[in-house]
Every structure is written in C-alpha cells, then in structure tokens.
Amino acid sequence: MKHTTVVIIGGGATGIGILRDLSMRGVKAVLLEQGGIASGASSRFHGLLHSGGRYAVKDNEAAKECIEENMILRRIGRECVEESEGFFVLSQQDDPAYEKPWVEACAKAGIKAEPVDVKEALRLEPNLDPTIKAVYRVPDSSVDGFRLVWHNAMSARRYGGEMLTHHEVIGIDQEGGKVKGVRARNLVTGEEIRISCDIVVNAAGSWAAKVVELVGLEVGVQPDRGTLVAFNHRFTSRVINRLHMSSDGDIFVPHGSITILGTTSFHADRPDAHEAPTEDVLKLLDIGEVLIPNLRSYRILRAFAGTRPLYVAKGSAAGRAASRGFHISDHGEEGLDGMFSIFGGKFTTYRLMAEKMCDLVCAKLGVHAECRTAIEPIIESPSPAMLEKATKYFPVHSVPLVANRLGDAFPIVVERAAAMKSNPLLCECEMVSRAEIEYVASDPSSQSMTDVRLRTRLGMGTCQGTYCSLRTIGALTECRMPFPLSPADNLRDFLQERWKGLRPALWGLQAREMELGRAVYAATLNIDGAKDEQKI
Amino acid sequence: MNRKSDIVVVGSGLAGMSAALTAAQSGKSVTLLTHGAGTLAISSGCIDVLGYVNGKSVYDPFEAMAELPAEHPYSLIGGEETVREALSWLKGMCKKGGIDMAPAAEQGNHRLITVMGTLKPSYLCPDSFNPDCLKDVHRAAVVTVENMKDVHPGLIIDQFHRYDEFAGKEFMEAVLPCPIEHAHRNITPLDIARHVETPEGLKWLEESLAPYARLYPVLLLPPICGMKHSQQVWNHLCTVLKVKIVEMVSIPPGVAGLRLREAFKKALNLAGVYTVESAEVVRAEVEEGVCKALYSATAHGECGWEADNFIIATGGLLSGGISTAPGKAWESIFRLPLEAPENTEEWSSPDIFGSSFFASMGMRVNSELKPLDAEGNEVLANVRFAGRILGGYDFAAEKSGHGVALATGRYAGMLAGKE
Questions:
Q1: Predicted-complex ipTM score
Q2: B252 — contact with chain A (CB < 8 Å)?
Q3: Which of A82, A371, B256, B390 shows its CA 20 to 30 Å from the CA of B9?
C-alpha cells in the first residue's frame, strides 16, 4: 500500500494546479485521474484567457479575478499563451444601453477597455460585419489549455508530485469521521490499489458530485454542456466577443491557424456529455454570422463539447446565469474530516483556485510554506544553445512550436532526435516529429495513440488524422510501444475519436475530407473488414 | 460559340474515362471534360469488384452479386454478365497500355497485401500485386525505403501474424537506403517509382534488393516498380533477381492508380477523344427534360459544350459530384435533389465504420442509368450517370469502388454509343 499526505482526485487544470502548488510547498501528494491529463473541460473549451470583460457587469468579483490571473499566466505560462488581445464588438442586434455600464464595470474591475474607431477596427479585422456600431480593445488572449495543464504536471513532477492516469477512484476509506485513504482501479489493467492519506481533495470538476457520492455526501455541481466549433482557418487576428450580456456562440478565439467559435450552455445529465449535437453547431453558426457574415464559407474541422462544472448553491440560478466563481467545501463540516471539494470557476482562474485550496490544506496540516505559483514560471525556457541544436534535427520553423509544446521535455526530445538516424515529421499539420511521438508514447501516462494525439496535437490539424495516423501507428509498432490495444484497434480507436468530432458537421468541405478518410482506411486499407479476420 | 460532339462525358476518374473510351470505340465523337485528376490519382489501381456484402466477407464477387438489392448499381445494369464484360474489356485495354492484369484468384477475389499489413479483397489486379506466390513459400522479406514514412515493415509483419493464412510463415524487415535527396518532405512510393524509371534508379533498386533476393523467394515492396513502364521494370527485376516481387497496396498518392490512368490516357488519345482539362462544369441548359449543353467556367468566361448524349461521372462527396449543406444534398451540375434526412445526425452512424446513410447517398437511376425523381419518373432523357455519383452502394464498406465505376462507366458509354 502506498502512503502520501494528500490525494487529489481529478487531473484537470484545478487538480494539476493543486498538485503543483502542494509539491512546491513541500507537501507530498498523489493525483488520480480516470482518463488522461486534461481530458475533461480543461481541453474542451474555447481556449480563451479571459480579460474578465465577459463577466464585468454580471459578476464584477469574478471579472477582477480574471484580469489578475490573466496577467499572471502571461508571465508564468508564456509558452502556452498567444497574446492576441481581444475586441468587444457591439453589433446592430445588441442593446446599445449595455455599453455604458459595461465600460464602467470594466474600469471597476481593473480591465483596460479602450474604445477603437469602427473604421480602424474593420481595417484590423476585415472579416467583421461592416455594420457594427462600437468596438473596444481588451487584454483577452488565446491559451492552449491542454499544454498549460501538462506544463503544470511537468513542474509538479519536478517537485516530487505524483500522478496516476487511467485510475478511477472507487472508494474513500474513513475511520471515526476521518479520511484514511483512497481506493482506485487501474482502468487499463483492472488492478486495484489503495493509497493511505490524511487529506483528500476532490477536484473532479463535473465528476465532483460522483466522487462525494462515494461517501454519501452531496455537492452543488451541475454539469453544463458547452459545444464548440473549430474552423480550419484563422479569420480574425484577435479574440472577438459580442458586447452584450454573455450568451451562446458569441466568442471567436483564434489559435495558430484555426479559430474556435463557442459556446452553448445546456444542462447536461452526465459529466461526460462530450458529444456535440448538430443542433448546437447550427445554432453557433447562426449566431456567429452576426459578427462574421461569411462564416459558413469556412471549412469546419470538427465540433466538440465539454461540460462546465457549474456551482449551483441550493435554490440559485443554473446554466448561463449561474456564478462563474469557484467554491470550496470543507466536508469536515458535514462530519468527514480531511475531505475537501473544489468546483465551479473557470480555466483562467485555475491557479488562484489551487492557491486557495492549498492554503486551506496547508493550514490544516500546519504547513507554513508560502504559495509561489504566481511568481515562478511553470517551465524553464530552453537555452539558446538547445534551440540552436534542435534546428539540426527538426525543421527550423517548427523549433519554437516544439519547444513550447514540450516544455521541460524539450532537451530530452532533442537528444533523442540527435541519436536517431533521422527524425521525420509524422504529422505535418502540427509539425510533430517521430522523436517527439516516441518520447510521449513512452510516458507511462500514454496508453493509446489517442493519448499521444492529445499531448502532441498529432492529427488535430487540416487532415484530421487521414495521413498521419497510419505512419504513426507504424512508427509506434516498430519501436514496440507496449500499448494494450493491437495496432489496428489503436488506429480504429484513434479514427473513431476523430469521427466523433466530424459527424456533427458532416457537410460541405468537411464531408469531402471525411470521404477521403473512408477511401484510405476502409476502401484501400480495409481496416473495417480486417476487424473480424485478424486475431487479437 | 458552343462546341458540338455526339457525346460529352464529364469526369476523368475510372467511370468517366471508361465511358468516354467505350463511346469513342463505338464510333462517336466524344468530348471529355475534366476538372482535376480524378480519384485514380489516389487509388490503389486494383479493381475491387465486391469484397463484402452486409459486412460479410465474400469469396466470389459474382456469386455474391445475387444477394445485392435491386437498387444497387450492379443489379441495375444486369449484374454478372455486364460486369464480367467490362472487366475483360479493361484487361485488354491495360494489356495494350503496358499493364498485364493477373489472372483471377482461384476462389474469386485476391487477398491483396496493404501497407498496413492488412489483407484486402480485390478481383482484378496487375501482375505485380498478385499475392498468390506467397501461398507456396515459407519466407518473405517486407521491404521499405528509408524515410518512406507510410511504409513500416514492423507494422506490416505484426499485422501478418494476426492472419491464419500466414501462420508458420517467416517474415523479415528490410530497409533500402533512400536513393534521392530529401529535406523534411515526405518520401512517398511515387517519388521512388518515378526514380526507378531512370537507368540509375533501376540499377539502385536491383542492387539494393539483390542481397534479400538471395535469402528470400518473395519480396514485398511498396508500389515503387516504375510508373509508365512498370510492367517492364517488374518483369526485369523478377527475372534478374530470380524472385517474385509483390507490390503492396498503398495510400495516396496512388501509384498504381496513376499507372492505370496513363494507360487510359493513351487509349483515349488513340480513340480520338477530345479531352479538355480544367473545365469545371458550372451549369446545364435543359429544355423539356432534354439537356442541350453543359457550360464550363474558364478565365475568359463560360464555354458551352453541346451533344446528343451526356454522361456524368463527376464522383461523389469527395470529387464534388455530390454537394451537401446541413440536411441537404444535391447533384452538383443539374442541381437535382438527392434523398437525404433533414437531420444531419441521421446521415452517419456513431461508429465510423458502421452503416451510414451518406455512404450510399447518390443519384437514383433506372436500368439505363438515367436519373429518376422521387416518384421514379425519368427526369432527363439524354443524360446518364456513372461511378460514385450513383446511390445505392457503399464503395468503402463493400470494396466495390472501381468495380462499380468501371462497369457503370462502360455500360453508360455503350448505351450512349448505340443511340
């Protein structure tokens, strides 16, 4: 049996943020995650680093937290942030009476919102509807949520934090009203483990209610489905918001060469409601067209959905009207000493949430170490010499991207590439080379090609896996990666994951791309027919 | 001014070229309008006739045709007899174009070897793809070329071990040095196949295969044995190295598909077909159910193409013959509506390889391949459809893509040629 001080449940931004913070303060902690790192809402949102402008009127306190954390994350996580800035745009359909209180609320929260002349705004963002009425510039940014969580995880590991992915919590042991340990099942091997501990932190996001059910308690977490659409084009330079009360489909967030439009807000009956319905996609297109009139001419890459873990106190508002603030429950008050739950909040404020949670845990443990997460960069920047060396083994233009993506692991992957006979790019869209894929695949947290995709962005670009998946499974099979699935099953699983995102928007250029995929994998390679003909 | 011919064919995939060549061979003047290279450029170049019916593997595609529903293109055009005639016609055309097609497998379908290490049922393949020789040997080498990212012998051999028919056989990985300069670009089988047509390329392949040829009676290769002279290259290598070489079916770019395309282009030229490239047909002129002309867009404006008969082989979703929008699908030239559920979610199955509506979405036609409306009435008297634009079959699941394209293209060409 393993022993630690704190067990954290949930490997999203909050949980990993807590693991890093505790580890930096010298508290022993183990994190359990049922899927892969950041496989829930932390990678299923629009990737907006909020300036807070969106919440300024409705929840000025949350807006204030946003702008403060926004500025901190640009500093400590600059490898994950694209400082694109944002526009708030008053369209013809929006109530002009909202403008004045919004400007005042931004000022109150400390958000710099400068008016931009409409003509100038249209020069800067020519795809905007020419009939817009007013534009403000705010410090919004794009953030790669997945990467940021992974960098936090690397940092946590560096400080001794431990993570077990694909481990589902099946029980919380208690004795005399005190937490004693956590039982979990390895979902890959079926093996059950027990970790004894003094404190359990439930940071399971939308799954938080399911976790406390194990000890017969309740928390006010309501999963709320948000659907997003990723386009294969970057049609704005900046984040574009509608200047109105927060609503569906009113944010465009550009990332690299793509744009994400989001989101909807629907009550979800389960935390893993990750299927994006066509109905949501069409709704997003309708609303998005108000700001970007030629929106339907762009190819949709995929649609996806995540569930927000909204905090709903008994009898209060749900859905869009629910608070975006966060909440911590000390279950000691309900008779289970040493158990905490944290939920609600936003990705932008994950660090602050972790800090507050760790302050409580440390107070309980009598640990007096200060929180340093707001000052210490999450990963160390690679040395110029390492960047220079990398240009020998990676396409030169991909080096900054690869360095940012890999964080701490960059030097290891460069050395790996240097030792290889050649280091071909296996995914040209996202510039993922064989050395990087082999490194990520050999990480104990990778159990499938889908895990490798999530961490490297393999197959997330223009071809959506049509060309890169065969060669990747080839490379992985050749270096004998001990995945539980057979190569053909791994490939099918990978394509099936992609398919989930293609289905809801199966028309136009997207349908063509999908048909090419079927021509390659079914018609040419017969991986559908082979299923029944091959032995496992 | 509009140009006139007896027959206008639109589309230069296997269906369009088969239709154009057949019609021209019957003595008609034929214009072939093309836009892009057609899907032969991404195809395996082997003629899959029918490999699966309702998810069940079939040995003899002709026997299995009897089980197909009445609206399947094979059923519409007369089944076995029509398809066999088209296959034997293609074999003859290929022979003249320098590609020898292998005899059919004993049981019906060959089980071709793919670069994924899977086996795929296909009826007619070039000699160089014929895997029959593997039955009689116990050892074979699986060959790739350094930096060819899509071909991994390790994966292929791992997959072979999962098939009963390869039980007890020994396979070995072989990597040939890359003969051409490369940056961080892909080296594909097409690059190597082109190189192998040069004298130094052929010498390279011969010399680098020689050590393996001494150890193994069969060498499995990506499709790299030349382009325009692939048959000669393959014959030469098999003879000098005293081995059997089997090319594996690969993903795009479609080396063997391009070889077949070359053979067709030669035949089309000889038959006097007037081929127009980069001619995207943007509209049709129809009077009382008769098509008068098609119009293509050029930099100088529209260009009109008049004919007595038209054959539309513009492909499906991938090639643009079928256009789609949320909840709607239509044929792209005549804007004929295609049957499709209003809710897009009903178009596809949650399982990527499950049975999906869109997979068999397409033009509904009668036994003359003329288009029908929802009530079953013929809507255009002098227009026929061939290839993936047709509904009623799923080329990917059935492994019937080239078979349907060839048979319906040839059939449409024959019918139009007789009018």
A1: 0.96
A2: yes
A3: B256
